[in-house]
Specification:
Number of strands: 2
Strand content: under 5%
CATH class: Mainly Alpha
Shape: globular
Strand order of the largest sheet: 1-2
CATH architecture: Orthogonal Bundle
CATH topology: Arc Repressor Mutant, subunit A
Oligomer: single chain
Structural class: mainly alpha
Number of helices: 6
Low-confidence stretches: 108-118
């Protein structure tokens, strides 16, 4: 786990001014796309002592993950100071501001299509004996 933590810290340090990355993106770049929550823990425990640019990490909904009154305003002001603009609902335009290191993928995993159906098909159960008659 120490190796993953070191890689995550190194990736976060590389996010340039005026750009953002997501927790999942950082986890994927560090080799474990399912470890976004671990990235949150690393940021929480290491930002101060390792001087990480924690404010450049946002959630996959293109928003600041901290609640108002608990760091949200500070993170937003730090990002604005670096030139990041916020749109409707305080969302960040990923096309303009998301960091893409050397052409690597920017998301942890592609979004899955949502299939909507009005009915669920359930096949009839038949006994083995009735199947042999046909």
């Amino acid at each position: 786990m120490e190796a993953f933590t070191a890689v995550v810290k190194n990736i976060i340090k590389k996010i340039p001014r005026g750009k953002v990355a997501t927790y999942g993106q950082i986890a994927a770049l560090a080799g474990n796309p399912r470890a976004a929550r671990q990235v949150v823990r690393i940021l929480h425990s290491s930002s101060g002592k390792d001087k990480l640019p924690w404010h450049r990490v946002v959630n996959s909904q293109r928003r600041i993950g901290l609640p108002p009154g608990s760091g949200y305003e500070l993170q937003q002001s730090l990002l604005k100071r670096e030139g990041v603009k916020f749109g409707i609902g305080d969302r960040i335009d990923f096309e303009q501001y998301q960091w893409t290191p050397l052409g690597k993928p920017t998301t942890a995993r592609p979004a899955k299509p949502v299939l909507k159906t009005s009915r669920v098909f359930t096949p009839k159960r038949t006994s083995l004996a009735s199947r042999k008659k046909n």
